[in-house]
Amino acid sequence: MGKEAIKILLVDNDPIFRLGLVTALKPLNDIKIIAHFPLEGLAKELVRVNELPDLIVIDPFFLVQTPAKDLVKQACQILQKKYTDIPIFLLTKPLSQKQLKQYKLLGIKGYCSKGTGLNVLVDIFRQIARGEEYWQTNVLNNKSSLLAKIRQNKWLYHWQNSGINQIDYRLRQIQQELKEDDFSFLDWLVLQGRKRELLAARWLVSKMAESPGNQAYLPAPLTNPSSSIKEEKQREIKQLITQQQFKVTIFINTAQKIPLGTKNLTDITLEIDILTPEKKEKLIYLVLIKLNQLILESAGSSLSPKNLP
Q1: How would you list the strands of the sheet with 110-113, edge to edge?
Q2: Looking at domain 6-138, does it have CATH number 3.20.20.80?
Q3: What is the pLDDT of residues 12-21, one digit of tens each?
Q4: Of 56, 66, 98, 114, which is least packed with CB atoms within 10 Å of its CB?
């Protein structure tokens, strides 16, 4: 009889990162995410969790205004009240040694940044679940750290290429099937739906192995601006960041509504209606991810409505 899988509870305000991590861990047999939700309303969300986790992974800093130390302390108190002996692990932005010392005193069992390679991250999860601790040292100029990151990225590159090659092979098969004439209209709809799912999955895999700077974090506000930058330009930059935060907030709110139901309330039958509720929900998440990425990428461009397709 196989060993029981490690059960993870994921708390993160970024729905795109949550979905990405769930998707990345699905192929593994010894580790799974049993529930995931944002930090807001944490106590209420915990009531809905039926299984006992082996590990709690949390990012308490994404899109929040509360001071860092107070926020981590509040989250730990809520989690430790329900899960007394379950280890809490920080998977978040780069932190200073001073911050890490403070969080150790709160009972947290480890930390690493979201830029950590997937294979390394999985090993860390297993280590924490065994009752050990892991504290990533954030020394950016350390030569060995840079070499380790290169090795991680190399592994991710091969993992990414393997996944994309499999998806491309299946896409070619579907493309060949679509050229045939001996199938029904329903079969055509199913093939078109699978094609879109594969294209969305291909995009997701390609994004998951990118650098830490592309992991759904907002661009950091500019610090120490040059004296040559005029005050008007600084206001424009601040306005752009505010707009991007607003856009991300919209997508977070939308993503949180998807689990409430995806039933088609119109009188028009859509292609997506042939999918099961679970598949439909997954497809909508992928579309939301892609749309969010496109909007963020175009935020700083000079495209006018006339240039849009």
Answers
A1: 31-37, 6-12, 55-59, 88-92, 110-113, 134-135
A2: no
A3: 888 878 888 8
A4: 98
